[in-house]
């Protein structure tokens, strides 16, 4: 599993540390909510909703530089449109990786 | 140029706002988490550009595009280009940006927008310019020389047309008279004022001195006004 990084955040913030901190704070606050919504949608087997949740989380995956994970999330989103949850396990691993990483920054 | 941002994701809104702040002559006048909120804002405010997230729950970007009546330029933001293709049938879609958006790509889209706007300005400059029009005052049709007008002010159900020699109070709206005026000479700088750009004496902060009148310039119109001036 690849490791998340802040390369994109750093390039966007340039030398503005206050913006960098603000952006990280927003991600740290928003991600758990999105993750919770995703698991609730999974519990309800609501494919449309799960697809929406995955789509939204995809942005955080790309912001954190997880290129391979992004491809998995993209594939999972496509499967969900076909009412298949293939790649759900891999996607859940990505979520766990991000959750752990966000605790360290 | 002023813009608004519509995205249901706070992280995305913050990123786009930052990209705007790193781009010359691009001010963010509103940030919205839903398209419905933005529609209310657009009904009351003038906007040059919208950054629109295409994939939003309930009321998505395409629903939004179908509802807006004003020809405002739109740059789509999306994590999936497949969704954006459908929207490209609309003329006012300038570009789409794949998330996460990088600054050089963002600025390329703005450059593309500006290059689209320039020919429009040029066309309005070279179009045949009328010299006068008639207004109805107390059942008399009075001819007003367009070049003599320096200021038009909205005043309830009336407009006040100020010329070099006279002051005409006409039962009309700024919107109606704006349609009659050549864009090369006149500019609406505030929801209550249209000015003849050639008659400006000076500009200070958010006001313009034109003849002896000091006229406010709305924040959203300041950059457009500055672009119209022949600066040294």
What would you say this structure looks like, in words?
- The complex is a heterodimer of chains A (105) and B (232).
- Chain A has helices at residues 7-13, 17-43, 47-63, 67-81, 88-104.
- With 105 residues, chain A is mainly α.
- Chain A is elongated and about 45 Å long.
- With 232 residues, chain B is α/β, with parallel strands linked by helices.
- The longest helix of chain B is centred in the middle third of the chain and has 24 residues, at 103-126.
- Classes of the chains: A mainly alpha (105), B alpha/beta (232).
- The A-B interface holds A 8, 11-13, 19, 22-23, 26-27, 29-30, 52, 55-56, 58-60, 62-63, 74, 77 and B 8-12, 14-15, 18-19, 55, 57, 79-80, 99-100, 102-103.
List the uncertain runs of chain A: none
Indicate the low-confidence ranges of chain B by residue numbers: 121-127
Question: What gyration radius of chain A follows from the Cα positions, in whole Å?
Answer: 14 Å
Largest beta-sheet characterization of chain B: 5 strands, parallel
Backbone CA Rg of chain B:
20 Å
Largest interface, and how many residues on either side? A-B, 21 and 17 residues
What structural class is derived from the secondary structure elements of chain B?
alpha/beta
Total helical segments of chain B = 7
